[in-house]
């Protein structure tokens, strides 16, 4: 199975900060990488698909990038509504695998 | 608009079975696969597998082979997840999600406790 190593597991940040979350794939997954946001008691929300494409309705302060086997989610100018847990997911092959999650919280 | 509405919370004893449903609306059900995702309390997301809603063929992740069954009631635009011989570690919220994972159900909390 493809392992997705996500870091950091916890990310304290201040409003207005620029933050980056990274997932490293254990094998080539091309651009078959999605990012999700999950708030307590809610279903996950798709934020980024195809590693770099913003999903519908997602604010432009979110962006995705790729460097080799490292995939990153960056949030510019953090807002309070961005506090959540973020997960990456590879869907290049079965089983699809999620990263362990990054909890973004106020410093 | 696209909606996935899941059935209500379940409280079961070890060894029992449970069947949870995911009713789709707002699109042609058989055009998009349905995925299932598990989230244990306080834990991360785990992909369980998917079902081809056109052919009915399921695909399971290894950890979900044997006691877990994906099925369809295509005429009712509904996907189902049945778990047999429930164990304490099956306590979790189970989500359905349409192919592409843009659209999710609200999740069903299944609690297994004696």
User: How do the strands of the widest beta sheet of chain B line up side by side?
Assistant: 2-10-9-4-5-6
Shape annotation of chain B: globular
What structural class results from the helix and strand content of chain B? mainly beta
Terminal Cα span of chain A: 35 Å
Radius of gyration of chain A: 13 Å
Q: Could you name the ranges of chain A where pLDDT drops below 50 across 5 or more consecutive residues?
A: none
Strand content of chain B: over 45%
* Beta-strand fraction estimate of chain A: over 45%
Please tally the helical runs of chain A, counting DSSP H or I stretches of 4 or more residues.
0
**Helix proportion of chain B:** under 10%
Mean pLDDT of chain B: 97
Number of strand elements of chain A: 11
Commentary on this structure:
The complex is a heterodimer of chains A (107) and B (114). Chain A is mainly beta. Chain A contains no helices and eleven strands. Chain A starts with a strand and ends with a strand. In chain B, strand 4 (34-39) and strand 5 (45-51) form a beta hairpin. By secondary structure, chain B is mostly beta strands. At the A-B interface, strand 4, strand 5 and strand 10 of A face strand 5 of B.
Please render the helix and strand layout as text.
The complex is a heterodimer of chains A (107) and B (114).
Chain A: E1 4-7, E2 10-13, E3 19-25, E4 33-38, E5 45-49, E6 53-54, E7 62-67, E8 70-75, E9 84-90, E10 97-98, E11 102-106
Parallel strand pairs in A: 2-11
Antiparallel strand pairs in A: 1-3, 3-8, 4-5, 4-9, 5-6, 7-8, 9-10, 9-11
Chain B: E1 3-6, E2 10-12, E3 18-25, E4 34-39, E5 45-51, E6 58-60, E7 68-73, E8 78-83, E9 92-98, E10 108-112
Parallel strand pairs in B: 2-10
Antiparallel strand pairs in B: 1-3, 3-8, 4-5, 4-9, 5-6, 7-8, 9-10
């Amino acid at each position: 199975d493809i392992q997705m190593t996500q870091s950091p597991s916890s990310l304290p940040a201040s409003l207005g900060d620029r933050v980056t979350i990274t997932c490293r794939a254990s094998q080539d997954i091309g651009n078959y990488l999605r990012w999700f946001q999950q708030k307590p008691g809610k279903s996950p929300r798709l934020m980024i698909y195809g590693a770099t494409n913003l999903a519908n309705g997602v604010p432009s302060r979110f962006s995705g990038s790729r460097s080799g086997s490292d995939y990153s989610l960056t949030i510019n100018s953090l807002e309070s509504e961005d506090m959540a847990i973020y997960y990456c997911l590879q869907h290049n092959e079965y089983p699809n695998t999620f990263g362990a999650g990054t909890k973004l919280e106020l410093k | 608009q696209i909606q996935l509405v899941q059935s209500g919370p379940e409280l079961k004893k070890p060894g029992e079975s449970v069947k949870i449903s995911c009713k789709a609306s707002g699109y042609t059900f058989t055009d998009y696969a349905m995925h299932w995702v598990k989230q244990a309390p306080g834990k991360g997301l785990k992909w369980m597998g998917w079902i081809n809603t056109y052919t009915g063929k399921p695909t399971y992740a290894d950890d979900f082979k044997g006691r877990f069954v994906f099925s369809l009631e295509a005429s009712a635009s509904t996907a189902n997840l049945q778990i047999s011989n429930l164990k304490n570690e099956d306590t979790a919220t189970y989500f359905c999600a349409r192919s592409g994972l843009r659209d999710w159900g609200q999740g069903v909390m299944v609690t297994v406790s004696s």
